[in-house]
Amino acid sequence: MHISYMSVCFVFVSFYASVLPFTQCTTLEEVNHFNSHRNTNSKVHKVNHQKSSDIALHGFLLWGSMGFLMPLGILTIRGSNKSEPGSRKSRVLFYFHVTFQMLAVLLATVGAAMSLKKFENSFDNNHQRLGLALYGAILLQAFIGFFRPHRGKKERSYWYLAHWILGTIVSVVGIINIYTGLKAYHKRTLKSTKFWSILFTVEVIFIGLIYLFQDKLEYMKKQRVIEGSDESTMSSYQDIPERQNQKEMLPVACGKINALGNLFD
């Protein structure tokens, strides 16, 4: 009986000694998982408080540059093309175009400097890569704009084609990069960007409609003028018989060069 009791005690002790290390390992893993989860939450919380305002300011700077001023400059220069070259309206719209584009370059420069100074730029995502390429394209576009050939030169057509293509590409890719920036902001700070995405989409649609209707508005004005001229032409055609009757009642003019000679015939 004494032997069986000792055997039972030995079995319990052996079982406890074999299970205890696994229990300690499981407990240690749970503690480490909890600590890592807590560290992740604290890291996100830290990002929200330290960099959220900087990221938002960076986004607003590039929004104003790529998403507003640059398309507005394109609309103004398209408006100047409808006016006579050298006119006062053409010069004013051209200076507005230059002002908007220079402000866009300035805001983009501040946003890029802010990104290099305060953010981690590993360039392992599409937003940072597009942003770097866009900033180089903006500087190149400004450089091309300063060295504009005069009208009448052969280089003017090539300059216009390069300036137009590069400006259109920069504007379109800049709008796309704003959407990628909103997505990166949501991923980084866990804040909703639905309102800003909708607001920016409404702005893009509004600018696109103005861009499309700039040419059509002039066409509609010309159509109205043509219709008015047709009506005036029809009214003039209706007045032709009356004018012929009036001419029949007038005295027949003489074939002499000096009309005063009729008085002395």
Automatic annotation (TrEMBL):
The protein's GO terms of the molecular function aspect are: heme binding; metal ion binding; transmembrane monodehydroascorbate reductase activity
Q: Which GO terms describe its cellular component?
A: membrane
Question: What is its cofactor?
Answer: heme b
Q: List membrane-spanning regions.
A: 60-80, 92-116, 128-147, 159-182, 194-213
InterPro entries, alphabetized: CYB561D1/2, Cyt_b561/ferric_Rdtase_TM
* Signal sequence, renumbered to the chain: 1-21
Q: Where is the Cytochrome b561 domain?
A: 19-221
Membrane topology annotation:
Multi-pass membrane protein
Give the record's keywords alphabetically.
Electron transport, Heme, Iron, Membrane, Metal-binding, Signal, Transmembrane, Transmembrane helix, Transport
Q: Does the keyword Signal apply?
A: yes
Chief place of localization:
membrane
Its subcellular locations are: Membrane
Q: Does the keyword Calcium apply?
A: no
UniProt protein name: Cytochrome b561 domain-containing protein At4g18260
Q: Which organism is it from?
A: Cicer arietinum (Chickpea)
